[in-house]
Amino acid sequence: MDNVLNLTKIIKREHQSNWVAIAKDYSEVLDYSEDLLDLRNKIGNQDVVYLKIPESGRKYAF
Amino acid sequence: MAWKEFAYSPYIFNFDTGEIGHEPTLAVKIHPREDFLPFSTRMLVDSGAYQTLIDAKVGRSIGILDIESGKSTTVTGVSGKVTAYEHSIKLELTELGEFMEINALFVEKMGATGLLGQKDFFAMFNILFEQPKLKFKVEKVKKLGF
Fold first, then answer.
1. What residues of B are in contact with residue A13 (Cβ under 8 Å)?
2. Among A4, A25, A57, B36, which residue has the fewest nearby CB atoms (within 10 Å)?
3. More confident residue, B78 or B58
């Protein structure tokens, strides 16, 4: 089985409800923004992983 | 493709209490329209989603500038209805080494980046959830590629 992907050490309270750009090796959050297009402009052509971080404590049922 | 096993990913569900949640996600790369950069992310493997859904902002960032030009449909969830717009996208499942060309639904202000749903993803893969063990398995059953 692949290693467990654990983002709990790099995702912080200030990231909730925002878009984050994470290093390709998942080692750190490079930048974050409320607006994805703004974040993509800041990151440029770096190879990163983008994620939308849900609001803390909110239960989703899709 | 033989069964491939993945771990549920832990995340901080509640920053006030420190409660940890776990979710089955897969790495995907959405290939863009001309002159735009690809979009790498992780999407939730969600058997409760009829079809793959993606936040509309992701669509705009890969070159689908007029999201509302897509075929519109109503998506009903437990908290109400939203309008979604369908667009064809090329999705690379990077951890599986597979490519899919699908019609995804784009929705404004989703609570997540994207959901891999039944009509496309689950129609092409066997999925075995083993949540008590915090792992899930994926096996391709239909020919893919683009």
1. 15
2. A25
3. B58
